# Entry
Amino acid sequence: MSYIFFEKSVMANLDEVSRKEVLRTNRSRAYASSSILDCNTRKYHGLLVVPVPELDDENHVLLSSLDVSVIQHGAEFNLGVHRYQGGVYSPNGHKYIREFNCDKVPTTIYKVGGVVLKKEVVFEHFEDRILIRYTLEDAHSPTTLRFKPFLAFRSVRAFTHENSVASRDYHPITNGIKTCMYKGYPDLYMQFSKKNEFVFDPHWYHGLEYTKEQERGYASDEDLYVPGYFEMDIKKGESIVFSASTKKFNTREMNRLFEEEVQERSPRDNFFHCLVNAAHQFHVQENDGENYVLAGYPWFKCRARDMFIALPGLTLSIEEKEYFERVMQTAEKGLRELMAGKPLTVKIYEIDQPDVLLWAIWAMQQYGKEEGMERCTDLYGNLVIDILNYIIAGKHPNLELDSNGLLKTEGRKHAVTWMNSTVNGLPVVPRTGYIVEFNALWYNALKFAATILTAKSRENEAQGMEKMADQCKHSFISTFYNEHGYLFDYVDTHLNKDWSVRPNMIFAVALDYSPLEQHQRKSVLDICTRELLTPKGLRTLSPKSGGYNPMYVGEQTQRDFAYHQGTAWPWLGGFYMEACLRMYKRTRLSFIERQMVGYEDEMNYHCLGTIPELFDGNPPFHGRGAISFAMNVAEILRTLELLEKYSYQ
# Structure
């Protein structure tokens, strides 16, 4: 039996399985995603969702879904599932599902009387093309398949409704048709590996309802256009491949291409392999040779902070240093453009946030630990030193080195940290002044830079960095460490101190160079354990602190207020685990292994084989937000690597 497997009794439970999602991506930000029933529950769902740079920088749903019907003796059995307004499901194809598994590719087995039909789905790696293979495994009578495509041609952030502007035109092509509903969109090519008949029978299907949008307080219904249907006979043992793409394809190559794509997929046969597959889904390679890491699916782009935090776990922890180097080559271009005051030419968002440069140094530091300081110094030594000199010189627009050796920033009117939720244009958590993780990262960066300068035989400069680090250490302790044994989350320059117990202090314990003394590190770690630790990572706020709001539910404003006020984040848990191992070494191995079990449960629950953006901070710790989040996947992978390293020490 496959690692990810659901039998008929589970698939018949609409409420349960409609919450389980599947995601397949390529390297251009395009993807296919739906529930495992193939019943779309989000406006972001679709079989072919692609970027259309001629229109904007968003993804667009071209092909929403594809219904297949089995026809025998003139009777039609529609295997599709759609939810309409009022909670009505039609058709009810889920009752024909015998099993679903997700070993190499998502595979659904349908049984209709004596007919057994297998459906397998792949998304081509380097083209915007979805491929679906249908195999008739058993049948006792002549069998016909009918395929009905549901078209949207809209942004993932919008809905489509019946209108007079949508074009009904289509053009026959080899074993299929091409069509385009609106000017500015690419043509959609729908083709099969076998000759078929296309019957032009245009209809709008009204009032399709997306439950995930309802839960989030958004508009939740739309209309989809069906231009007609394709029909063809199929014999027992025969396979037919369907392709939907923005490019025409040689139909004689479809079976070969599908098999090649399947063979390239690594199996999802255990927890680790699921995470490796998930890590690869965040890779983006542009035609100009630039490489990126997406922050998550389905709505995130490449955000600088997320990219640098996630990069080591997504690459170095699974022995893929080459992709780390390719992403850093692109990132270095953006970082140097920022420091030179030039317009940004790379597709990295929020690179001007004040802590991004510090996280970039942390990422390069992880490379040095994995691949050796000599190579790290050769590749990134100059960049690390240039970043520090840029900050020291006071050139960053919102990062100032104070006379006490600490960094300060202005965050009262604009969110400047990873806790970036806003309501009415203002940050929910207005972190400003001296921010705890900024300065923990700053101390760590100064110490790391000193080792690089020493390796370059620049001893005088190295001593200067060490002197700055010593000053930073003294000021860090006197500014952040309080009489209760934990760290203030931020201290603004007007001496207002935030007494909230938040997870950002864990970085002062987890980083390679800590500004805290041993007993202080232990105290901070103990408080994080008592007040913030959950099976799904660290809470963003202690239940004992004012404003605790652990449930990420409701309308947008309600969720914004909860986003960093008690929800749990696995990526923070990764740094917590690292801090535990630094403090207690092998004695905490079994504890951390048990923590990993809480994440393995997610492989079958939220989006199959990956980790969502965040979790409720209270039991039963439901997954929320984006269905796949890069920093979470990365830090779990990095924790698994740390477990292995400490096991052999």
